[in-house]
Automatic annotation (TrEMBL):
The entry's keywords: Glycosidase, Hydrolase, Signal
Residues of the site described as Important for catalytic activity, responsible for pKa modulation of the active site Glu and correct orientation of both the proton donor and substrate: D157
Stretch forming the signal peptide: 1-22
Pfam families: Glyco_hydro_43
Residues reported to bind substrate: D39, G116, N154, A155, I156, D157, S174, F175, W176
Protein name in UniProt: Putative arabinan endo-1,5-alpha-L-arabinosidase
PANTHER family according to UniProt: ARABINAN ENDO-1,5-ALPHA-L-ARABINOSIDASE, ARABINAN ENDO-1,5-ALPHA-L-ARABINOSIDASE A-RELATED
InterPro entries, per database record: GH43_arabinanases, Glyco_hydro_43, Glyco_hydro_43_endo_a_Ara-ase, Glyco_hydro_beta-prop_sf
Protein family: Belongs to the glycosyl hydrolase 43 family.
Keyword Hydrolase recorded: yes
Native species: Paraprevotella clara YIT 11840
A biological process from GO: arabinan catabolic process
Top-level taxon of the source organism: Bacteria
Site (Important for substrate recognition): H290
């Protein structure tokens, strides 16, 4: 999730208001039908779904039916000290998590950064269960990857994908040099050395194209979903975090290889200005974006956040069943 200096006070106020209400809910343990979230991701353990999102120490929810959500405490009892020490200005408001079950553990990835800077880090923690009533703590292993002001990438917005050979990869990135992909070690705690970054989506490029290169590389929030022999790369274009003035939207490209190239319906590469629209604003939400996709119980689902038109731009969960057209492209209803 991009945190830029352009962020409007109206949008920031609405977003923080939502988090404040959510914080009250954590203390009360209340049940909600429309959770206040930003950058949502999900996993299922047994008969329970668990949702994680941006928030203080990572916000969390649980549900038995994908309709009523119980607000849980933050994942961490205190901000990871390594991140507080190394990321100036980070105090526990943790962005854009990802969650995956892999080799006997649930692995949580999270973003530590501050507005408008790429001095950032992606952290990692693991636990055998997602059950919030378990006494088992999350074991934090520290930074997976770090970016500094001299780097042309931003180490936030992680998403983990396991390729057909069983190798773990992490895609990430926001603005700067665009969306990156890097191979992880088998324990998921660090990047494989020597580190090699693949740029798999950027809106800034050289050479002729029927789509003009953008002066600002407004792309972030990657998520890779495997379906029918393809890897589908969902990314968010344009700007979030301005409340009702946001213009986020989700586009997609696909590839037979996890490293790309990813192309859209018209054959344009996502590194050359491509991207087929999946979802945009509608009559209920402005700027639907920062998406994730899952296969649960025989169905595919698409989730994101959107700024509620009826509630002054509060950020809420957008959750829909995802189907596929005859050519194998994802379809997500705005209704």
């Amino acid at each position: 999730m991009k945190r830029t200096l352009f962020i409007g006070m109206l949008g920031l106020s609405a977003l923080m208001s939502g988090y404040a209400q959510q914080g009250e809910g954590v203390r009360k343990g209340r049940i909600v039908r429309e959770p206040l979230v930003h950058d949502p991701v999900m996993a299922k353990e047994g008969d329970t779904y668990y949702l994680y999102s941006t928030g203080h120490n990572v916000s969390s929810f649980s549900s038995k039916d994908l309709s009523e959500w119980t607000i849980r405490h933050g994942v961490f009892s205190a901000p990871p000290q390594w991140a507080v020490d190394s990321i100036k200005g980070y105090e526990g408001h943790t962005w854009a998590p990802d969650i995956i079950y892999y080799k006997g553990n649930y692995h949580l990835f999270y973003s530590c950064s501050t507005f408008g800077k790429n001095t950032s880090a992606i952290g990692h923690a693991y636990r055998k269960t997602l059950n919030p009533d378990s006494d088992e703590p999350w074991t934090d292993t520290g930074a997976v990857i770090v970016s500094h002001s001299h780097d042309n990438f931003n180490a936030i917005d992680p998403n983990i994908v396991i390729d057909e050979e069983g190798n773990p990869w992490m895609t990430f990135g926001s603005f700067w040099g665009g969306i990156q992909l890097v191979r992880l070690t088998e324990d998921l705690t660090s990047t494989l050395k020597p580190e090699k970054l693949y740029t798999i989506c950027t809106r800034q490029f050289e050479g002729a194209s029927d789509v003009p290169s953008r002066s600002v590389n407004s792309v972030e929030a990657p998520f890779i979903f495997k379906h029918g022999g393809y890897y589908y790369l969902f990314v968010s274009y344009d700007f979030c975090c301005r409340g009702l003035k946001s213009d986020y939207k989700v586009v997609v490209g696909r590839s037979t290889r996890v490293t790309g190239p990813y192309v859209d319906k018209d054959g344009r590469e996502l590194t050359r200005g491509g991207g087929s629209l999946v979802v945009d604003s509608n009559d209920e939400f402005v700027a639907i974006g920062h998406s994730a996709a899952y296969h649960f119980d025989g169905k595919d689902y698409f989730m994101a956040h959107g700024y509620s038109l009826s509630e002054d731009g509060v950020s809420k969960l957008f959750f829909r069943e995802m189907t596929w057209d005859e050519e194998g492209w994802p379809l997500v209803s705005a209704e």
